[in-house]
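Our preliminary data section would be incomplete without showing what the modeling component actually yields. Below, a chain of 188 amino acids is followed by its predicted structure, encoded as tokens that our downstream tools consume directly.
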Amino acid sequence: MPPNSPISASPAPTPQEKALKRVLTVSRLNGWSVIVVAGLGVLLALALGDLSSAAIGLLGVASGAMEVRGHRALKRRDVGGMKWLVRSQWFLLAVILVYCASRLGSFDADTVMGSLTPDMEVLLKESGVERSDILPLVRTAFFTLYGTVAIVCLIYQGGLALWYRNKTRLVTEALTAPPLPPAHTPLA
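Predicted structure:
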């Protein structure tokens, strides 16, 4: 039966209902993904004894929890859940950018060169690479890694925050609209 036929069981979802359903799906998946990934990061940081990275990971877990809280509020038909979704993205973006900035500012050439093991130095000599050639390569890789993470997160988290904000009106309309009466189907 075509979805808009007069004898279909239910009317086609409105744009508001579609937006609500999509926001609920995205917020559930993204919120729990952030919690799991950040939680694993916390465990890894603790295993390595890196308390500052563990603290950053806990802030990431908090951001994911904020998103899940917003998702649950929307499931209860509480329009305030959209604010939680938007704020969770801005919070996570701020946490990631601060982390990247702190790492970019912490590059230490002496530590890098001191980390070369004797086996690494032998491998470098066999490859024809001088010890002094390594530092520019490591510096470039280091800045590229954290710069890329910052840019990707700016695009993704910032874009998701704006997407949630742009869906607020449709979601609000979906949550505040009176329920539609069941479709009446003709008997004959």
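Residues 1 and 8 are 7 Å apart (CA to CA). The radius of gyration is 25 Å. Preliminary results of this kind motivate Aim 1 of the renewal.
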